[in-house]
């Protein structure tokens, strides 16, 4: 199955660009955890042990870690290359980020000594730690931070996410002040791993113009070699600024796109850790006592990644709300998860918007909580009476046989309502470009998971809508002044109740506009041989900051990993 691109795939929670102008977290995969083969139904969910992937034993130094990943990237430059989960997995080896999350879910300084805001959140001050050097000996100072942030602002890939930045100023050798055009309360959440904006690259390497193929960071491992499609190897940073880390001698990543082959490699001992990208991986490994299994079913950081059908609201006939309503009423989420997802994630249904029940941002909405075929048929009949014929459109997916098969299941549901739906099979790279320029009607998609809902600003804002044929970060091209006002309120307000009300409005309006027909929750997983210790347990550099966030949130942290 094609590698899903999700919240862990982006610059700040989701995205890929034209394919350099955006940063799209999308894919033609029908379900993020969909079957790559036949197999039995998943049934009831079992969760991994609470301490899976975490070890408090005395670490051992040395050893070579081999990691199987599901895709290859196009380069290592956070300001220009398009990263999915694999890209960020590579990145946390070579680069450090300015910040990371603590166990309290608050952003903590990492490379930075401190990250503070003024009273109205129109200025953020970043102070760097003393004595940190890049792998090439260059100093990490305020000038280096400014170089990196300015690059991100100027980049067609990441610039839209930083459009609210007015200026980046060096006010002391160790101090950078980021000035905003308007208050930006959750700006610091854009500086953590999983965001391409927070990783720091050596200015000297940037000048050399070879960051994409020869990355230079401050991270725990130093780039050694990259053979595209075969392996990427990094060696221990002997001068790492965090005393005692890392423990491993080398880390080698091997792209193995076929998830079943990746699983076979783990069982055969050819790799030590793997990322699971399908429900079949989860079903195969979650009860296997010969591996350490972790997933993010019960440890989502903030907003979950969702699988849905993205509708181009700027083109007929899906620009008609009745057609979108018919799709929503005709979609049987439970059947999709049971058949295409092997039962993985049933407990999260129904999906009625981007926020889970229990989230302060969740709202009861007009989105149908269960399928209603009679209602769907009535909406189609009303359209036919008005237009003279049934709405005819194409439902896109990538050219993976399983994706096509699962998309046929959705096609049958929608056809049963009277919608005239054909399947459009598209190669992955073209798929992403088509979404950006609006050359599609309905696409299967995976996106939106984020540590803070503001990180989806560019995907939902009417300000990022462009005409069909032009690049648009609001891929669905949905224009809603109420959503825009709520997004701006959520970004500018420091009061939790105001932010909650803002994003409840967003969820409610998305249910009314229906640019997205929800399908399921995405589930990420990782599996390791039992001698791989502490691979999802990052630590923070400051003891007074408390522990780092533990649990699987889409990344394996090799700096803290060791082999028993």
Write up this protein.
With 564 residues, this protein is an alpha+beta fold. It folds into three domains: 16-30 and 306-519, Dipeptide-binding Protein, Domain 3 (Dipeptide-binding Protein, domain 3), CATH 3.10.105; 64-95 and 209-299 and 524-563, D-Maltodextrin-Binding Protein, domain 2 (3-Layer(aba) Sandwich); 99-203, Dipeptide-binding Protein, Domain 1 (Dipeptide-binding Protein, domain 1). It has helices at 85-94, 142-154, 203-208, 259-268, 279-285, 321-330, 333-339, 373-387, 401-416, 428-437, 457-460, 481-492, 496-513; strands at residues 16-17, 19-23, 64-69, 99-101, 107-109, 112-117, 123-128, 165-172, 175-180, 221-227, 231-236, 250-255, 273-276, 292-295, 306-311, 392-398, 420-426, 442-447, 516-521, 525-528, 532-533, 562-563. The strands form six sheets. The chain has a seven-stranded mixed β-sheet with strand order 10-11-12-3-13-20-14, with helices on both faces. A five-stranded mixed β-sheet has the order 17-16-18-15-19. Strand 6 (112-117) and strand 7 (123-128) form a beta hairpin. Helix 12 (481-492) packs antiparallel against helix 13 (496-513). The protein starts with 15 loop residues before the first strand and ends with a strand.
């Amino acid at each position: 199955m094609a590698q899903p691109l999700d919240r862990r795939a982006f610059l700040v929670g989701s995205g890929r660009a034209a394919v350099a102008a955006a940063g799209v977290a999308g894919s033609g995969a029908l379900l993020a955890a969909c079957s790559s083969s036949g197999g039995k139904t998943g049934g009831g969910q079992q969760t991994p042990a609470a301490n899976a992937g975490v070890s408090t034993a005395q670490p051992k130094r040395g050893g070579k870690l081999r990691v199987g990943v599901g895709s290859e990237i196009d380069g290592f430059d956070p300001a220009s290359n398009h990263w999915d989960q694999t890209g960020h997995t590579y990145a946390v080896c070579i680069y450090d980020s300015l910040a990371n999350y603590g166990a309290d879910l608050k952003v903590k300084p990492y490379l930075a000594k401190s990250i503070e805001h003024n009273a109205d959140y129109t200025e953020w001050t970043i102070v760097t730690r003393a004595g940190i050097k890049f792998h090439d000996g260059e100093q990490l100072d305020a000038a280096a931070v400014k170089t990196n942030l300015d690059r991100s602002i100027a980049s067609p890939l990441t610039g839209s996410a930083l459009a609210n930045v007015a200026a980046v100023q060096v006010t002391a050798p160790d101090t950078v002040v980021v000035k905003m055009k308007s208050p930006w309360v959750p700006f610091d959440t854009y500086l953590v791993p999983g965001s391409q904006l927070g990783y720091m690259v050596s200015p000297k390497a940037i000048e050399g113009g070879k960051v994409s193929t020869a990355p230079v960071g401050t991270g725990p491992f130093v780039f050694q070699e990259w053979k595209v499609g075969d392996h990427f190897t990094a060696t221990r940073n002997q001068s790492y600024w965090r005393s005692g880390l890392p423990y491993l001698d080398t880390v080698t990543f091997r792209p193995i796109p076929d998830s079943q082959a990746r699983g076979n490699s783990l069982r055969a001992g050819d790799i030590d850790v793997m990322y699971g990208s399908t429900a079949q991986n989860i079903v195969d490994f979650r009860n296997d006592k010969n591996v350490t299994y972790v997933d993010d079913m019960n440890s989502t950081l903030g907003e979950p990644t969702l699988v849905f059908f993205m509708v181009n609201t700027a083109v007929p006939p899906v620009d008609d709300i009745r057609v979108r309503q018919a799709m929503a009423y005709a979609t049987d989420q439970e059947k999709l998860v049971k058949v295409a997802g092997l039962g993985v994630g049933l407990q999260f249904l129904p999906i009625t918007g981007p926020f889970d029940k229990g989230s302060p941002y969740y709202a009861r909405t007009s989105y149908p909580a269960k399928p209603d075929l009679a209602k769907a048929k009535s909406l189609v009949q009303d359209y036919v009476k008005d237009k003279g014929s049934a709405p005819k459109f194409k439902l896109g997916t990538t050219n993976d046989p399983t994706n096509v098969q699962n998309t046929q299941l959705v096609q049958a549901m929608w056809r049963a309502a009277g919608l005239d739906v054909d399947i459009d099979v598209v190669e992955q790279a073209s798929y992403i470009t088509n979404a950006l320029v609006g050359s599609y009607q309905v696409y299967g998609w995976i996106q939106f998971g984020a540590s803070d809902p503001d990180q989806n600003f560019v995907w939902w804002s009417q300000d990022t809508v462009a005409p069909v044929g032009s690049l648009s970060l609001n891929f669905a091209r949905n224009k809603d002044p109420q959503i825009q006002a709520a997004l701006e309120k959520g970004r500018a307000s420091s009061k939790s109740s105001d932010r909650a009300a803002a994003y409840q409005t967003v969820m409610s309006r998305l249910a009314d506009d229906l640019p997205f027909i929800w399908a399921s929750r995405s589930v990420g997983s990782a599996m390791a041989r039992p001698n791989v210790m502490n691979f999802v347990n990052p630590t923070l550099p400051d003891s007074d900051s408390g522990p780092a966030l533990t649990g699987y949130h889409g990344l394996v942290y090799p700096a803290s990993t060791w082999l028993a």
